[in-house]
Amino acid sequence: MADVSGRQPIAAHHLLNFIDGRWSPAESGQTRTNINPADLSDHLGEFAESGGVDVDRAADAAAAALPAWRAMGPIRRAAILAEAGRLLTERAEEFARAITREQGKLLREARGEVARSRAVLDFTVGQARLLGGVTAPAEEDRTFAYTFRRPIGVVGLVSPWNFPLAIPMWKVAPALLSGCTAVFKPSPLTPLTAALLTEVFHEAGLPDGVLNLVQGDVAAGEALVANPSVAGISFTGSLPVGTAIHTGGAHRLLRTQLELGGKNAVIVLDDADLDGAVDAVVHGAFGQAGQRCSATSRAVVDVRVRDAFLDKLVARVAGMKVGPGDDPASQICPVVNTARLDAALAAVAGAQRDGGKVLCGGGRATGDGLPDGCYVQPTVIRDVPWDSELAQEEVFGPVLAVVDADGFDDAMRISNSVKYGMSGTIFTASQSRAFEAIERFEAGMLHVNRPGVGAYAHLPHVGAKASQYGPPECSPQVWDFYTEWHSACISY
């Protein structure tokens, strides 16, 4: 039964780890409180805070389950994944509301994430009959030569809080279809969505030990990197943590797939459709409160249209309503916790010290009936130097830096001046400039005259430079992480 707020109660087993087919507490008995960022008085429960013992149990279970799961073959494995997709669709609203309550995003954004997760799962299921190799000519007579893929073994899947369903899905689904078994460690900020996802796969018929859930933070992550049974780790999160995972496992040649930060630019040239550019920047910078690796955190605008662009942009942003994700009137959700709130406000203060001028927002959103939550006003800052901290470092909040550019070449230089390379976007009426920008962007996902966020389930989700290490996620290229190639020659 729902409480007076309409929220469904949290089942007791969702607070636990899921290891070898059973729900169990952390060995230490330690827990962590899960808090709704829209209302800090709303505690979802005390979730397991795991350590090395729990990770080792999960890795042992995954290793024991590996031979039978690998032998099942991709077509039969896909049938289980398809059933998980059916169950996900049945429980879509439950997932969406769990995402909104523990992560904070608008309910319509959460529903979109559920739909995206189902699309990723559907794409992955469809790959089952394509996971083959090729035949090749042999140098000798009466010899048959061919190649095939084999799963790498037990994998660790470490996911962030900003997409607590979609990102785990685009790790779990290909890992399982490939024949790997997994230890899934989600962000400690979004444990409920992870538990629901694990439950769906278990109810779909996944054998015990194939997918294990270990809730926790740094201790669990470090144990996962150190465990010798783990052949590879797929991680999405910050550059420092990704670097630590890679270097921590380098001595044993741990395979890594790392999707890291972004400092993404939308270039607005002097021939751009300004209304279209404003729509895209608002969506990219303030959707999900700017908490996306592909979020638009810089608008690099030609000085010839800067003032006209800013007039339109500020008129839109200043009127946006900040509020809880379950309020249909809300247009901007809270950030995920008080640490992110403090970081966003510190970034604004730093930009002002560097000469930036706040055109709207710039502070914590309060009043207007808002509960005590992690609300940041949508903020636009102009006159931001291209090499200042706000223009170079990821904020992960609803803070947009507007950087002046003197023409196309200068805009490209500024866009590529950061260490990251997640996405790049340009607005222009020139076909020539559009194609040249695609050639010159130092980024993995490129857009012309459309928002710089969002991706298709069948296209690579990939960055460049410090935004990515290892094979892309989603797309057929994902198999280059979860499988390894073998060749065979048979004389007959």
What structural keywords apply?
single chain, 492 residues, alpha/beta, seven-stranded mixed sheet, six-stranded mixed sheet, 15 helices, 37% helix
Characterization of the model:
The chain is α/β, with parallel strands linked by helices and 492 residues long. 37% of the residues lie in helices and 21% in strands. The protein is built from 15 helices and 22 strands. The protein has helices spanning 52-72, 74-90, 92-103, 107-126, 166-178, 191-203, 218-226, 239-250, 274-286, 306-317, 338-353, 389-392, 408-415, 431-440, 479-482, and strands spanning 17-19, 22-24, 31-35, 43-48, 135-136, 143-151, 154-158, 181-185, 211-213, 230-236, 255-259, 264-268, 296-302, 357-360, 379-382, 399-405, 420-421, 423-427, 445-448, 464-465, 468-469, 483-491. The strands form 6 sheets. It has a 7-stranded mixed β-sheet, with helices on both faces. Strands 9-8-7-10-11-21 form a 6-stranded mixed β-sheet, with helices on both faces. Helix 2 (74-90) packs antiparallel against helix 5. The termini are far apart.
